Amino acid sequence: MSRTRGLHNLQKTDDELQIVSRRLKEIAAALGESDQVTQARKHATDAEEHLAKCRTQARDLDLEVGGVIQRIETNEQRLYSGRVTNPKELANLQEDSVSLKRWREKKEEDLLEALVGEEDAEKTLSGAQSNLGQIIARWEADQEDLVAERSQLETQQEELLQQRGSLIASIDPEDIGIYQALRQRKGGRAVVVVENGICEGCRMPPPTSQVQQAGTGETLVFCNNCGRILHLI
Ligand SMILES: [Zn+2]
Protein backbone atom coordinates (compact mmCIF):
# COMPACT_ATOMS: atom_id res chain seq x y z
CA MET A 1 0.00 0.00 0.00
CA SER A 2 1.34 3.44 -0.94
CA ARG A 3 2.07 6.02 1.73
CA THR A 4 -0.91 8.24 0.97
CA ARG A 5 -3.28 5.32 0.38
CA GLY A 6 -2.54 4.07 3.89
CA LEU A 7 -3.30 7.51 5.32
CA HIS A 8 -6.41 7.84 3.17
CA ASN A 9 -7.68 4.48 4.41
CA LEU A 10 -6.90 5.54 7.97
CA GLN A 11 -8.95 8.67 7.48
CA LYS A 12 -11.89 6.72 6.06
CA THR A 13 -11.73 4.38 9.05
CA ASP A 14 -11.54 7.31 11.49
CA ASP A 15 -14.49 9.00 9.76
CA GLU A 16 -16.57 5.86 10.07
CA LEU A 17 -15.55 5.46 13.69
CA GLN A 18 -16.64 9.00 14.36
CA ILE A 19 -20.05 8.41 12.79
CA VAL A 20 -20.49 5.19 14.77
CA SER A 21 -19.48 6.79 18.04
CA ARG A 22 -21.78 9.79 17.48
CA ARG A 23 -24.71 7.49 16.83
CA LEU A 24 -23.84 5.41 19.91
CA LYS A 25 -23.93 8.59 21.99
CA GLU A 26 -27.32 9.52 20.54
CA ILE A 27 -28.63 6.04 21.33
CA ALA A 28 -27.30 6.22 24.91
CA ALA A 29 -29.16 9.50 25.34
CA ALA A 30 -32.37 8.11 23.79
CA LEU A 31 -32.41 4.97 25.90
CA GLY A 32 -34.44 5.28 29.06
CA GLU A 33 -37.83 6.80 29.69
CA SER A 34 -38.71 9.48 27.13
CA ASP A 35 -40.27 12.84 28.05
CA GLN A 36 -43.42 11.71 26.29
CA VAL A 37 -43.73 8.64 28.51
CA THR A 38 -42.98 10.69 31.65
CA GLN A 39 -45.62 13.22 30.67
CA ALA A 40 -48.25 10.59 29.82
CA ARG A 41 -47.52 8.82 33.10
CA LYS A 42 -47.98 12.10 34.98
CA HIS A 43 -51.32 12.73 33.25
CA ALA A 44 -52.51 9.28 34.27
CA THR A 45 -51.37 9.76 37.89
CA ASP A 46 -52.99 13.21 38.05
CA ALA A 47 -56.23 11.79 36.65
CA GLU A 48 -56.13 9.01 39.23
CA GLU A 49 -55.64 11.48 42.08
CA HIS A 50 -58.43 13.68 40.76
CA LEU A 51 -60.81 10.72 40.59
CA ALA A 52 -59.94 9.73 44.16
CA LYS A 53 -60.77 13.30 45.28
CA CYS A 54 -64.08 13.27 43.39
CA ARG A 55 -65.00 9.92 44.95
CA THR A 56 -64.23 11.15 48.46
CA GLN A 57 -66.26 14.29 47.86
CA ALA A 58 -69.24 12.31 46.54
CA ARG A 59 -69.08 9.85 49.45
CA ASP A 60 -68.91 12.70 51.98
CA LEU A 61 -71.91 14.39 50.39
CA ASP A 62 -73.81 11.11 50.33
CA LEU A 63 -73.19 10.70 54.06
CA GLU A 64 -74.24 14.31 54.65
CA VAL A 65 -77.49 13.80 52.74
CA GLY A 66 -78.13 10.63 54.75
CA GLY A 67 -77.52 12.58 57.97
CA VAL A 68 -79.93 15.36 56.99
CA ILE A 69 -82.63 12.86 56.04
CA GLN A 70 -82.20 11.23 59.43
CA ARG A 71 -82.54 14.60 61.17
CA ILE A 72 -85.65 15.45 59.13
CA GLU A 73 -87.23 12.15 60.17
CA THR A 74 -86.40 12.64 63.85
CA ASN A 75 -87.70 16.19 63.68
CA GLU A 76 -90.95 15.19 62.00
CA GLN A 77 -91.51 12.32 64.40
CA ARG A 78 -91.34 14.82 67.23
CA LEU A 79 -93.48 17.30 65.34
CA TYR A 80 -96.29 14.84 64.62
CA SER A 81 -95.96 12.72 67.75
CA GLY A 82 -98.54 14.77 69.62
CA ARG A 83 -96.17 14.92 72.55
CA VAL A 84 -95.16 18.49 71.83
CA THR A 85 -97.96 20.85 72.63
CA ASN A 86 -96.20 24.10 73.33
CA PRO A 87 -97.06 26.32 70.28
CA LYS A 88 -93.64 28.03 70.30
CA GLU A 89 -91.85 24.69 70.38
CA LEU A 90 -94.10 23.39 67.62
CA ALA A 91 -93.37 26.46 65.52
CA ASN A 92 -89.64 25.93 66.06
CA LEU A 93 -89.91 22.31 64.98
CA GLN A 94 -91.83 23.36 61.90
CA GLU A 95 -89.22 25.94 61.06
CA ASP A 96 -86.41 23.42 61.57
CA SER A 97 -88.18 21.01 59.29
CA VAL A 98 -88.38 23.59 56.51
CA SER A 99 -84.76 24.62 56.81
CA LEU A 100 -83.56 21.01 57.02
CA LYS A 101 -85.47 20.19 53.85
CA ARG A 102 -83.91 23.16 52.12
CA TRP A 103 -80.50 21.98 53.27
CA ARG A 104 -81.21 18.47 52.02
CA GLU A 105 -82.16 19.86 48.61
CA LYS A 106 -78.95 21.85 48.46
CA LYS A 107 -76.85 18.85 49.49
CA GLU A 108 -78.63 16.59 47.02
CA GLU A 109 -77.80 19.05 44.23
CA ASP A 110 -74.18 19.09 45.37
CA LEU A 111 -74.16 15.31 45.43
CA LEU A 112 -75.56 15.10 41.92
CA GLU A 113 -72.89 17.52 40.71
CA ALA A 114 -70.21 15.51 42.49
CA LEU A 115 -71.45 12.29 40.86
CA VAL A 116 -71.31 13.91 37.43
CA GLY A 117 -67.78 15.10 38.27
CA GLU A 118 -66.84 11.58 39.33
CA GLU A 119 -68.10 10.18 36.05
CA ASP A 120 -66.09 12.76 34.10
CA ALA A 121 -63.00 11.97 36.17
CA GLU A 122 -63.46 8.25 35.40
CA LYS A 123 -63.59 9.01 31.68
CA THR A 124 -60.50 11.24 31.90
CA LEU A 125 -58.60 8.55 33.79
CA SER A 126 -59.53 5.84 31.33
CA GLY A 127 -58.44 8.09 28.42
CA ALA A 128 -55.14 8.93 30.13
CA GLN A 129 -54.47 5.26 30.88
CA SER A 130 -55.15 4.12 27.35
CA ASN A 131 -52.95 6.94 25.99
CA LEU A 132 -50.18 5.93 28.38
CA GLY A 133 -50.52 2.31 27.27
CA GLN A 134 -50.16 3.27 23.61
CA ILE A 135 -47.20 5.54 24.26
CA ILE A 136 -45.45 2.87 26.33
CA ALA A 137 -46.02 0.26 23.61
CA ARG A 138 -44.52 2.56 20.97
CA TRP A 139 -41.67 3.53 23.28
CA GLU A 140 -40.87 -0.11 24.05
CA ALA A 141 -40.73 -0.94 20.35
CA ASP A 142 -38.41 2.05 19.79
CA GLN A 143 -36.23 0.96 22.67
CA GLU A 144 -35.94 -2.52 21.20
CA ASP A 145 -34.90 -1.04 17.86
CA LEU A 146 -32.33 1.16 19.57
CA VAL A 147 -30.88 -1.73 21.54
CA ALA A 148 -30.58 -3.79 18.34
CA GLU A 149 -28.96 -0.88 16.51
CA ARG A 150 -26.55 -0.34 19.40
CA SER A 151 -25.44 -3.93 19.35
CA GLN A 152 -24.87 -3.78 15.59
CA LEU A 153 -22.91 -0.54 15.93
CA GLU A 154 -20.78 -1.98 18.70
CA THR A 155 -19.79 -4.87 16.46
CA GLN A 156 -19.03 -2.44 13.64
CA GLN A 157 -16.98 -0.30 16.03
CA GLU A 158 -14.94 -3.29 17.10
CA GLU A 159 -14.23 -4.25 13.48
CA LEU A 160 -13.24 -0.68 12.62
CA LEU A 161 -10.92 -0.49 15.62
CA GLN A 162 -9.25 -3.71 14.52
CA GLN A 163 -8.93 -2.37 11.01
CA ARG A 164 -7.48 0.86 12.41
CA GLY A 165 -4.98 -1.10 14.47
CA SER A 166 -3.64 -2.93 11.40
CA LEU A 167 -3.50 0.32 9.42
CA ILE A 168 -1.61 2.11 12.18
CA ALA A 169 0.85 -0.78 12.32
CA SER A 170 1.50 -0.47 8.59
CA ILE A 171 2.00 3.33 8.52
CA ASP A 172 5.17 5.25 9.42
CA PRO A 173 4.65 6.74 12.94
CA GLU A 174 5.91 10.10 11.68
CA ASP A 175 3.18 10.15 9.01
CA ILE A 176 0.60 9.29 11.66
CA GLY A 177 1.78 12.28 13.69
CA ILE A 178 1.39 14.57 10.66
CA TYR A 179 -2.00 13.06 9.86
CA GLN A 180 -3.29 13.54 13.40
CA ALA A 181 -2.10 17.13 13.66
CA LEU A 182 -3.69 17.96 10.28
CA ARG A 183 -6.91 16.20 11.19
CA GLN A 184 -7.19 18.36 14.29
CA ARG A 185 -6.43 21.58 12.46
CA LYS A 186 -8.46 20.88 9.32
CA GLY A 187 -11.86 19.98 10.67
CA GLY A 188 -11.22 16.25 10.70
CA ARG A 189 -9.97 16.05 7.08
CA ALA A 190 -6.25 15.48 6.72
CA VAL A 191 -6.14 13.55 3.44
CA VAL A 192 -8.04 14.70 0.36
CA VAL A 193 -8.57 13.08 -2.99
CA VAL A 194 -7.67 14.97 -6.15
CA GLU A 195 -10.40 14.34 -8.66
CA ASN A 196 -10.33 15.77 -12.19
CA GLY A 197 -7.44 17.96 -11.08
CA ILE A 198 -9.47 19.49 -8.21
CA CYS A 199 -8.60 19.18 -4.52
CA GLU A 200 -11.74 17.90 -2.80
CA GLY A 201 -10.72 19.73 0.37
CA CYS A 202 -10.80 23.27 -1.00
CA ARG A 203 -12.23 22.80 -4.52
CA MET A 204 -9.11 24.45 -6.03
CA PRO A 205 -6.87 22.87 -8.69
CA PRO A 206 -3.39 22.21 -7.31
CA PRO A 207 -0.49 22.75 -9.80
CA THR A 208 0.06 19.84 -12.19
CA SER A 209 3.52 19.19 -10.77
CA GLN A 210 1.97 18.70 -7.31
CA VAL A 211 -0.68 16.38 -8.72
CA GLN A 212 1.95 14.33 -10.53
CA GLN A 213 4.06 14.10 -7.41
CA ALA A 214 1.04 13.10 -5.33
CA GLY A 215 0.22 10.47 -7.97
CA THR A 216 3.23 8.39 -6.96
CA GLY A 217 1.79 8.11 -3.45
CA GLU A 218 5.30 7.85 -2.07
CA THR A 219 5.85 11.40 -0.83
CA LEU A 220 3.48 13.49 1.20
CA VAL A 221 2.33 16.39 -0.97
CA PHE A 222 0.33 19.12 0.74
CA CYS A 223 -2.23 21.18 -1.15
CA ASN A 224 -0.87 24.66 -1.79
CA ASN A 225 -4.21 26.16 -0.91
CA CYS A 226 -5.67 24.18 2.02
CA GLY A 227 -2.59 22.41 3.31
CA ARG A 228 -4.08 18.91 3.28
CA ILE A 229 -2.32 15.76 2.10
CA LEU A 230 -3.19 15.12 -1.56
CA HIS A 231 -4.08 11.60 -2.64
CA LEU A 232 -4.83 10.27 -6.09
CA ILE A 233 -7.09 7.27 -6.46
ZN1 LIG B 1 -6.84 21.88 -1.11
Query: What is the third-level CATH name, the topology of the largest domain?
Result: Helix Hairpins
Largest beta-sheet characterization = 3 strands, mixed
The succession of helices and strands, N to C, reads: HHHHEEHE
Given helix and strand content, the structural type is: mainly alpha
What's the rounded overall pLDDT mean?
95
In the CATH scheme, the class of the largest domain would be Mainly Alpha
Describe the structure.
- It is a single chain.
- The chain is mainly α and 233 residues long.
- It has 2 domains: 1-29 and 172-233, Helix Hairpins; 31-169, Orthogonal Bundle (Helix Hairpins), CATH 1.10.287.1700.
- The protein is 77% helix and 4% strand.
- The chain is built from 5 helices and 3 strands.
- The protein has helices at residues 3-30, 35-80, 87-170, 173-185, 208-216; strands at 191-195, 198-199, 229-231.
- Strands 2-1-3 form a 3-stranded mixed β-sheet.
- Helix 1 runs antiparallel to helix 3.
- The chain is rod-shaped and about 130 Å long.
- The chain starts with a helix and ends with a strand.
- The mean pLDDT is 95.
- Bound molecules: zinc ion (ZN).
- The site of zinc ion (ZN) has 9 residues, from loops.
